[in-house]
Design brief:
The structure holds 2 protein chains of 2 kinds. By secondary structure, chain A is mainly alpha-helical. Chain A is about 80% helix and about 0% strand. Chain A starts with 9 loop residues before the first helix and ends in a 6-residue tail after the last helix. Chain B is mainly alpha-helical. Chain B has one domain. In chain B, a hairpin with a 4-residue loop joins strand 1 and strand 2. The chains are: A mainly alpha, B mainly alpha.
Amino acid sequence: MNEMPVFVKVEDFKEALDLMNMIRAKIENAKHTLEKINQLRGEEAAELELWQETIDEAERKIEFIDKTLSDPNAL
Amino acid sequence: MKQKKKRKRSEEVFYVGVRDPTEVRRNLLESAREAVRFLQRYEKLKEIREQKFQAMLQLDAEVKDLRSLVGKLKKSFPNARPHVSLPKHKPFCELCRKEFSDTAGFLKHVRIHQQKEEKVSKIKEVKPRALNDLEKLESELNDIEGKLGEM
């Protein structure tokens, strides 16, 4: 039974080919969108890294101010 | 009497010297500048996240379209016994990468996303205010940088 050939009407076959083209185009679109999401994810990660650097820098500055204020005897 | 009191008060005032005051002031101003930049970066991050969310919704719509097209394609073929057994498809949410055992649960979940989408569109209407905030931050940053330049 499994070995038997399958026949499709010509009209249906044309429709199937059109559908295949549409599906291919849709897959291409989905791939582009996924690429965009990945790119945005990268940008997000880069931004968060910058945040980390900014916080570290601010911490260093505040530490310096704190040290200077709490050590007035060194004048 | 009054003069005595005044003298007493002036004698009571103590001062603490700040070592390296210019450097302290510079550090303070630079910290303020970093804080403003931080807020600017937050606005940028918010924008990126919004774009990502929109892209995910778009991807979700595209996957839905794909599924309907594949369904149509399936209909255009005769009902013959499949030669290959395909793995069972489970509904999957592209946005939160969750798999569902049944369609009903998946549809319930999708409704939550649709509600979120409505909220986002409301946020979009408020966008001009965010721009004003950015402008404010920019002018604050310019002020701080001006002060730093004067030092």
